Amino acid sequence: MLGEVFKRPQKHRMFMRELIREIYVQGVGSIWIVMLVSFFMGTVLTMQLGINMSHPLIPKFTIGYSAREIVILEFSSTIMCMILAGKCGSSIASQIGTMRITEQLDAMDIMGVNVPNYVILPKIIGLMLFVPVLVIISMFVGIGGGYVASLFSPSVTISAFEEGLQLFFEPYNVFYSIVKSVVYVFFIASIASYFGYFVKGGALEVGRASTRAVVMSNVAILIVDLVLTQIMLV
């Protein structure tokens, strides 16, 4: 299927139109859930670190440092993409699956259209182009949530939290997180498209295909996370 997907588009104007639409629907439409989850996770993470690092021998700036590293290295890439697998992956699988059972894909195939290229490629490229924006937003909002938590948590002060945020910062970690997220969404979009494209039956099977797509996407994310961490950090 991917061999057909990554062929040159037959009509570039139609491809660009579909690409922009997918960026808006799948990418821009996910900003609110990314900001909401990132803020509360950053807040809760900082509060829990403050509670569990209350020993007098542990410097207070460790809380800000740990919160920053967790948000940048894992949360804003891996956890957010697992959330996107549930939102975008199920949407892609159900959309393509519905087109399959209503014979829209068959009609396009009869007209000589490269169906995988026309339907699937804009979804994959659109997510891969926009996900770095979502990752950066998640990083800033997550750290901002931790800053808000330091305003109200008695276990960590604002000055100590800010000191930890600036301590031993590695810009490479941001690059590493963005690379991981781009690879993740490639698997999310391609796996969801596969299950939707080859669905058989009716509406019930479309729902099952969406569920399988989300599960398999999350499994792929965990495996890729292990592999990329071994390659890029170890």
Key phrases:
0% strand; mainly alpha; 234 residues
Q: Write down the secondary-structure element order.
A: HHHHHHHHHH
List the uncertain runs. none
What structural class do helix, strand and pairing data support? mainly alpha
Between the first and last Cα atoms, what is the distance in angstroms?
34 Å
Number of DSSP strands?
A: 0
- Globally, the shape reads elongated
Strand content: under 5%
Task: Return Rg in Å.
Answer: 21 Å
Explain the overall architecture.
- The protein is an all-alpha fold and 234 residues long.
- The protein is 82% helix and 0% strand.
- It has 10 helices and no strands.
- It has helices at 2-5, 12-27, 31-52, 61-101, 104-110, 115-119, 121-152, 158-166, 171-197, 203-232.
- Helix 4 packs antiparallel against helix 7 and helix 4 packs across helix 8.
- The longest helix is centred in the middle third of the chain and has 41 residues, at 61-101.
- It is elongated, with a radius of gyration of 21 Å.
- The relative contact order is 0.18.
- The mean pLDDT is 88.
Question: Summarize this, please?
Answer:
The chain has 234 residues and is mostly helical.
